[in-house]
Amino acid sequence: MLTRPLNISCDFDGTLMQNPYWRLHLKPWLISFSQSHRQSWAQLWQLMRQESLSRLQKGQSTEAYDWKDIVQTLFQTHLPDPVVPPRAQVLPLVYPDVWDFLHWSVSYPVRLHLVTNGFMTNQLPYLKALGWDKILASWTGSESGFTKPDPRIFDGIPDLDVHIGDRLAHDVLGAKRASIFAVHLRRNDVGEEQDGLDPLSPAHYQADLTIKTLKEMPQAIARLLPNIMTRKAGWLCKEF
């Protein structure tokens, strides 16, 4: 029997929402900035992507997601922080299955956490626009000094039981390294992106559970809870 709330962490972009920072802030800024340059916004974005990938390959994982510093480095200009937008702008970017999942999380003994490779400066405005900052127990971004799949990004969440995310190379691998039950949310059958894959990762790794929609989580948790808690106890015994 569960004697405490179940702690579940979720990824943000691709798991709960369709990248609001990119769609509502960074891309519009690039389009505006490109009007005074000879290159298109797409070309400027490609340069930024290349710089981000270069930083990842150098082991500078946190810096790879610091878009303000990347803009300053490449274009010698200031990229402003996003502000809290109108709720109506953010709502269309929320995956429909998220609402039932959130309702379940507040009605079931669950503490829900956010763990993202994005900077929370870039993510929090959209959480606030939706009121999700009142639902989440905590949120962790690259400002922590770590990014998935580094397992240390999960260290700030005591008794974390489950992590849900859409990226094998980030979410599943990071959770497995942290001895957390890893749920892969595979919304479609598109091939897995491999950018940012940790060079020390194993050639093959598999999620503990693969789902196609967050609507599957309540029944999955009910079915797998004994296994999750038993494995958690086993991991703790190994640690001590």
From TrEMBL:
Name of protein: FMN phosphatase YigB, HAD superfamily
Taxonomic path: Bacteria, Bacillati, Bacillota, Clostridia, Eubacteriales
Highest taxon in the source lineage: Bacteria
Gene3D superfamilies per record: HAD superfamily/HAD-like (3.40.50.1000)
